[in-house]
Amino acid sequence: MRALGVVSASAAVVLGLSGSAFACNIQDFKAEAKCDGQKGVIVVTDTDGYGTPAQVTVFLESNGGIETQVGKQEVKGSAEGTPVTFSEDWKPNATYRIHIKAANILDADIKENLVTPSTACKTESSTPAPPASSTPKPSPSTSAPAESATPTPSASGSSSAPAGTSGNAPSPAAGDSNLAETGANSNTGLIAGIAGALVVVGGGAVWFGMRRRGARGNG
Q1: Which of 77, 99, 125, 196 is the most exposed, having the fewest neighbouring CB atoms within 10 Å of its CB?
Q2: In a domain, 110, yes or no
Q3: Beta-carbon neighbour count of residue 83 at 10 Å?
Q4: Distance between CA 97 and CA 112 in Å, rounded?
């Protein structure tokens, strides 16, 4: 009886250890880099059907060998898979190390580090939207009519200058025409001719009268 008890106890211990070994395995965990809208996230899924509680820690590896802890969460797996999400705005081609610890059963990293996709979550098609709003600027259109309005007063000023010169020109012309209408030059010559003729006629008459008187005195 004592021998049967020892055998059964040892069998129970072996079955317990083997059960705990199969209860949680590093192969039950899977890590993925996904996008939640335009934000990056890292999702670790636990497919342990025994539901062994485990702790998931995510580290970001840098080129210099320095690691940065992104976050730590508890997870209890299921046959369908239980995911835990870490908010991480990951960059393209970044490397993350995922560590799993389940009590005294498991304490290891997922065999292959997680490498993010070469394309970020934010698409470039959304970035050119702001330039479209800045395009409608009416400032250049308003400056054009302002320049067209400026030449208008200059043209009016130039037209006023010839008007003043034309007003001065006719005044001497009008004076010349008045002098021409009087005919002063032509009347002076005629009067002088008539006066000369009268002088000649008068002188002849006087000479003729004196001669005639002299003839009478001699007779």
Answers
A1: 125
A2: yes
A3: 13
A4: 8
Residue 73 is given by DSSP the state E
Q: What is the CA radius of gyration of the chain?
A: 64
Q: Sorting pLDDT into bands at 50, 70 and 90, what band is 130?
A: low
Beta strands in the chain (DSSP E): 29-36, 39-46, 53-61, 67-76, 82-87, 95-102, 106-109, 114-115
pLDDT band at 109 (very low <50, low <70, confident <90, very high): very high
Residue 48 CA to residue 25 CA, distance in Å, equals 7
Q: Is the whole-model pTM more than 0.70?
A: no
Residue 3 lies in a domain: no
As for how many domains the chain has, the answer is: 2
Query: Which CA distances in Å does 173 have to 160, 166, 179?
Result: 21, 11, 10
Q: Is residue 219 part of a domain?
A: yes
Indicate the residue among 58, 83, 115 that finishes a domain.
115
CATH of the domain at 58: 2.60.40.2150
Alpha carbon separation from 41 to 93, 110, 141 (Å, rounded): 14, 18, 48
Q: How far apart are CA 86 and CA 217, in angstroms?
A: 171
Answer whether residue 146 is part of any domain: no
Here the tokens at position 203 are 């002188």
The boundaries of the domain holding residue 42 are 24-115
Domain boundary among 60, 81, 115: 115
Q: b/e for 149-183, b at 16 or more Cβ within 10 A? A: eeeeeeeeeeeeeeeeeeeeeeeeeeeeeeeeeee
